[in-house]
Design goal:
This protein is an alpha/beta fold and 392 residues long. It is built from 12 helices and 12 strands. 53% of the residues lie in helices and 17% in strands.
Length: 392
């Protein structure tokens, strides 16, 4: 048996000299002996302490042993404490009454130490086993509580992981949908650009050069949009990316204007076409020509617009175009609105054009900022625009 604290044994006898007899007889058990001389003292002790067994003298002045036993059994705390009556004689009536009051045994005096010790030892061992069982029960309850708390924490963690997994799956689904939509629109743009580039009187070599340039322009736009997670880009950045090879001869001015994804792609192609034509036939085809690119905002919040201008000076004489090519078709489509049509001037001093664009058609909407997949849907409009008009 594991180490336990010593059990308390209560002796109730009105003769103090008999207390020594009890102590000597029970000394070998190595337990705590508590002795009192009256039932009243015993009842007071039982309010504060728990005893393994009570040795109770039947015949005491004042409150008898039987009366004391009856009061002990009335108290919940001591209701099941073993009581052994000690008496010089016990008739049948007294014995029946004692057992009725919950006595577990009778011992006759004079005491036989070996018998007393053997009987007390049994109840001490029972008391210690009950105490050990109680401690084991408490320990088991604590372990159950700890395990329950651990399981609850694990369940909460699992719920969190499941929630995070569902969120991740939802984000992945949206991302896949967005990617599929973006690829579809991009392929539409590629198809339109390729169709317009390869159809006409160009040689294979010329068509290849033009196509590579237009695809490179579209690539610049995609790089800018990727940096902002397809929320849009600044117009100045779009222009700078397309005139990178002629930046010393192109002057740029204008306020900050944020473009939507479709606006970025369209303006990238427009500036690319203007810059390419200027390099082949216009102000950038010689060593002295220059280009001025500027834009300014006008109108109110409800009908705000942007005037985007491209002006060439110092190049060879310009001849009017005999047909509307890819670049002019984009300019016409971008600038066409109820307020104003694009102004295109093939002046001998240099080509110039001005596009008035409604701001609500080029600025990112709240949907563009909330979900790139919604913004990307506008790209299909650019693909349709690129497919319109005569072939260049």
């Amino acid at each position: 048996m594991s180490e336990l604290k010593r059990a308390d044994i209560l002796i109730v006898d009105d003769l103090p000299e008999r207390h020594l007899t009890y102590r000597v007889a029970l000394e070998a058990l190595d337990q705590n002996i508590v002795a009192v001389t009256s039932g009243e003292e015993a009842l007071q002790l039982l309010l504060k302490h728990e005893f393994a067994v009570i040795l109770l003298d039947v015949n005491m002045p004042g409150m008898s042993g039987l009366e004391t036993a009856a009061l002990i059994r009335q108290r919940k705390k001591s209701r099941h404490t073993p009581i052994i009556f000690v008496t010089a004689f016990a008739d049948d009536v007294q014995t029946v009454e004692g057992y009725a009051l919950g006595a577990v045994d009778y011992i006759l005096t004079p005491l036989v130490p070996e018998i007393l010790r053997a009987k007390i030892k049994v109840f001490v061992e029972l008391f210690r086993m009950r105490a050990e069982l109680g401690r084991s029960h408490a320990l088991l309850e604590q372990r159950v509580a700890d395990r329950t708390a651990e399981l609850e924490r694990a369940a909460e963690q699992l719920r969190t992981e499941v929630h995070e997994r569902k969120q991740a799956e939802e984000r992945l689904t949206i991302l896949v949908q967005e990617l599929a939509h973006r690829v579809k629109n991009l392929l539409s743009v590629f198809q339109s650009i390729t169709a317009r580039t390869l159809t006409g009187g160009r040689t294979i070599a010329d068509a290849r050069e033009v196509l590579m340039g237009r695809l490179q322009s579209l690539g610049h736009a995609h790089e800018l949009l990727t940096e902002t997670s397809w929320h849009g880009a600044e117009l100045r950045e779009v222009v700078m990316a397309e005139i990178a090879g002629f930046s010393e001869r192109v002057r740029i001015s204008g306020p900050a204007v944020e473009l939507s994804p479709s606006g970025v792609q369209t303006f990238a192609l427009i500036v690319h076409e203007l810059c390419t034509n200027a390099a082949k036939y216009g102000a950038l085809s010689n060593a002295t020509g220059e280009v001025a690119v500027n834009w300014m905002l006008g109108g109110s919040n409800s009908d705000g617009h942007m005037d985007f201008s491209w002006t060439e000076r110092g190049g060879p004489p310009v001849k009017p175009a005999t047909y509307e090519g890819f670049g002019l078709s984009l300019i016409t489509a971008m600038g066409s609105n109820p307020a104003a049509d694009p102004v295109i001037d093939f002046s001998p001093s240099g080509f110039a054009c001005t596009i008035r664009v409604p701001l609500d058609t080029i600025r990112p909407s709240r949907y563009d900022k909330a979900s790139p997949i919604l913004a990307q849907r506008a790209t299909s409009q650019m693909a349709r625009t690129a497919a319109k008009g005569p072939v260049s």
